[in-house]
Design a protein that fits this description.
By secondary structure, the protein is of the alpha+beta class. Helices cover about 50% and strands about 15% of the residues. Helix 15 packs across helix 23.
Length: about 800
């Protein structure tokens, strides 16, 4: 019986090739898109779930409340907090600190500590380096290939992951006991090798240097064992027994802050669960990206809606075709077929078509896999077929078969045999016209939500690219410099040599460029007051040419004079306002003291510029000279021949720092990387909006084709009576225009809610005006008219004599 049903189903599908092709195209696209979305979402949700203590690991983060009630968020904690938390919170099973280092150079010395640094292998490690304690590996997973965690209890020791050991020494088995030098200063001995971390982790760490080593070189890596300095690089992680309530620990933090920092402190330390880290932009991670559960649920919803749209096409076309099958159904019923058997027959056809679409969708997804990493933060090696993805496809197959087939099956099996045999069943008597209208409205509501989302996302990213950041970012080439005592003297001669090149407009040596992910902050005192200000000052250190090179504009005053140490300071407008000074002239000459330093005069106020990404508010900023804190050189070059100039810079740099590996980049490339995920999301919206429009157009084309067949005689009569091609097109288009307009009204509030929520991730964002929605409805109507118009014109051009002879 089943074999017979499938055979008949196959014949029926071949008999109606056009409708079968439309349904398969829509379902194949839907399955492929939803499978790829499933892979992305499931990968993001899997982050760090392999950790054995996943549910009991917490990061201790810092928040600070400003005078205006706003909050600042920092994943770091003061260096002095480690010992104090261990003492005051015995409930923690383990507490450990890590201090991340970025952009450090590692030199492979092998067995000889006196190897010539200019002739050996050098590697710039932009991420993956931390100073850590043995307790780190009692909290987080690690498979030791050589040595054990206790090696990090001694100064001068380093642990490598397998991949890094192979990169440095060719074979990880040869790495133990070998020597490395960090930043040409810190001599390290390889004490252990661990297995590489999985890709789906926020701890993709490759080099673990002992925390005792950090104590010896703290200033070089931003570590100070006090309560005043707060760096996002210095982070604390704790393991809490499952029997201890984290809310109880959190309630004790207020008293802890009062005890350690005084009742006037605006800081608060909070427990952030490991399971929250990957999904919280405010604090970030040690990995390469964070995401938002809202985005993941939105992507999941899009996947469901795309499959739903393909199912809607199937329902619409199946119910429209039901009239054509009325005689077949009538004969079957007369010959004794039951309604149950007819339902089974239609469901069999649906299952066959959906199964074929699943297989084709799997093929399309496989062909699309190489491009997936370009539109989502997933590795290129991600597997397509996993137990989870196979289960997903099986469930999708069952649900889509039921959703697409049950209503058409009930309609067809419900025909009265007498009416069916007399061909008295028409589209109106089937009762599916209202349902088809509702489904068309649903389809276009979904597609218009995605169109509006695409317009908003693209507009926001265009705004980000073209926003006035308050400084010049174009044509600024950035290279590292080194502030070690032995190398510090090379900075100024290199700068002077660079300025001799006529293609170089300006050079500034500084701690970092104007806009970066640096959040170096400190407490400070103002106007000779003995009480520190109730918000931190964010810090940038730079030479006297910083303002000219990056085009910073002064509100009042001037830049500081040339100096190697802090003599004078410049503040930004935000700092001035937060100090409750409205007249810029009144802050000139006031004094400021950073941490435990000396009092320094304020000599200028620069107009606000974006210190971080546009997701964040502008920070209250102090800029001063301090040569020991210079790490980069910003080189403003002419655009006439950039390749030649950057080649010159590289050659000069390598002659100045032969013991270092060269690495240079343009500043605007760095800024663009701030928004990598948003650009990916914008591209995803474009792709899914295109898919939604494609599926909607398939459905429209199928329905209009069916209408054209049903109205063959009517079109012929109208043409004989003088109707033009335009009249025929309008006849076919007016109903769909009305349905799309209704869909637009439904889509507006949904799209506004979703995209307004996404825009809240940016402090600086576009306004969703009426133009966005008008553009969306115009695009939807244009696409629908083209789809309907093509089939309508084709019908209108048919010879009316031929149409009237058709029975």
């Amino acid at each position: 019986m089943i074999k017979n049903h499938l055979k008949i189903a196959w014949r029926n599908l071949l008999k109606n090739k056009a409708y079968t092709s439309i349904n398969i195209a829509g379902l194949t696209t839907g399955f492929a898109a939803s499978l790829l979305i499933f892979l992305v979402v499931s990968y993001e949700l899997s982050y760090d779930k392999f950790q054995k203590n996943y549910n009991n690991i917490y990061r201790i983060v810092t928040t600070a409340t400003n005078n205006d009630g706003s909050e600042q968020f920092n994943p770091g904690i003061p260096g002095a907090a480690l010992g104090a938390i261990k003492t005051d919170f015995p409930q923690f099973e383990k507490v450990t600190a890590v201090n991340a280092a970025y952009g450090s150079q590692v030199i492979v010395l092998g067995n000889n500590p006196n190897t010539d640094l200019s002739s050996t292998k050098k590697f710039i490690e932009n991420t993956g380096i931390v100073f850590a304690q043995p307790e780190f590996f009692q909290i987080f997973n690690a498979h030791w290939l050589e040595g054990d965690a206790q090696t990090l209890g001694e100064p001068g020791n380093i642990v490598l992951d397998k991949q890094t050991a192979i990169k440095y020494f060719g074979d990880w088995k040869n790495a133990a006991g070998k020597l490395l030098k960090l930043d040409n200063t810190v001599l390290l001995k390889v004490g252990g090798i661990i297995e590489d971390a999985p890709r789906n982790t926020d701890f993709p760490l490759k080099l673990f240097i002992s925390h005792e080593t950090l104590k010896q070189y703290g200033g070089k890596y931003g570590y100070y064992n006090d309560w005043n300095t707060l760096s996002s690089n210095y982070q604390l992680y704790a393991l809490l027994p499952s029997t201890v309530n984290p809310a109880g620990i959190q309630s004790q933090m207020k008293n802890f802050v009062k005890k350690q920092e005084g009742a006037e402190s605006r800081r608060m330390y909070k427990l952030q669960p490991l399971k929250d880290m990957h999904f919280n932009y405010r604090f970030g991670t040690l990995g390469d990206h964070s995401t938002s559960k809202t985005i993941l649920w939105t992507l999941s919803l899009i996947g469901v809606l795309i499959i739903l749209m393909a199912s809607i096409n199937f329902i619409n076309l199946s119910t429209a075709q039901a009239v054509g099958r009325s005689r077949e159904v009538g004969i079957r019923k007369v010959l004794g077929s039951t309604r149950k058997q007819l339902v089974a027959q239609v469901m069999g056809e649906t299952f066959l078509l959906v199964s074929f679409s699943v297989l084709l969708g799997l093929l399309v997804a496989r062909l699309s896999m190489p491009y997936l990493s370009h539109v989502a933060s997933v590795p290129a090696s991600i597997s397509l077929l996993t137990p989870a993805s196979i289960t997903f496809l099986a469930i999708a197959l069952i649900l889509v078969t039921l959703l697409s087939g049950i209503y058409p099956a009930l309609v067809v099996s419900g025909f009265t045999p007498v009416l069916a045999l007399k061909s008295k069943i028409n589209a109106a008597s089937v009762g599916g016209i209202s349902l088809r209208r509702i489904l068309v409205i649903t389809q276009f509501s979904i597609s218009q939500v995605l169109i509006i989302g695409t317009i908003v996302a693209v507009s926001q990213m265009n705004y980000v690219r073209n926003a006035d950041l308050g400084f010049v970012k174009e044509s600024v080439f950035v290279v590292p410099v080194y502030s070690d005592s032995a190398l510090m003297a090379r900075m100024k001669p290199m700068k002077a040599e660079l300025l001799k090149n006529p293609d170089i407009v300006g050079v500034s040596i500084a701690s970092d460029v104007p806009s970066s992910d640096n959040n170096w902050a400190s407490n400070f005192y103002f106007d000779n007051s003995g009480k520190d200000v109730d918000f931190p000052s964010f810090l940038k250190y730079a030479d006297e040419d910083y303002f000219k090179t990056f085009g910073l504009q002064f509100l009042v005053g001037k830049g500081f004079s040339a100096a190697d140490t802090m003599r004078e300071v410049v503040v930004n407008e935000t700092m001035m306002r937060k100090l409750h000074i409205t007249d810029p002239q009144k802050i000139i000459g006031k004094t400021i003291r950073i941490g435990g330093g000396r009092w320094l005069p304020i000599v200028g106020v620069v107009k606000d510029f974006k210190t971080n990404s546009l997701r964040e508010d502008i920070k209250p900023l102090t800029i001063a000279s301090s040569q020991k804190n210079y790490y980069t050189a910003g080189i403003k070059i002419r655009t006439a021949d950039m390749a030649r100039t950057t080649a010159y810079v590289q050659k000069l740099w390598q002659s100045v720092y032969p013991e270092y590996a060269y690495e240079g980049h343009f500043m605007d490339d760095t800024i663009q990387r701030f928004y990598e995920q948003e650009n990916q999301l914008s591209l995803l919206y474009k792709i899914f909006a295109g898919i939604a429009i494609f599926i909607s157009c398939l459905g429209l084309y199928g329905l209009v084709s069916y209408m054209a067949v049903q109205k063959t005689k009517e079109v012929g009569i109208r043409k004989v009576l003088g109707a033009s091609i335009g009249n025929i097109v309008v006849m076919f288009s007016k109903e769909f225009t009305m349905l799309i307009s209704i869909a637009f009204v439904i889509a507006i509030p949904v799209a506004w809610y979703l995209m307004n929520g996404w825009l809240q991730n940016f402090v600086y964002r576009i306004h969703m005006g009426v133009g966005v929605f008008l553009l969306a409805i115009a695009a939807s109507l244009l696409i629908a008219w083209i789809t309907v118009g093509y089939r309508a014109v084709k019908t209108a051009l048919t010879n009316p004599v031929k149409s009237l002879r058709t029975e």
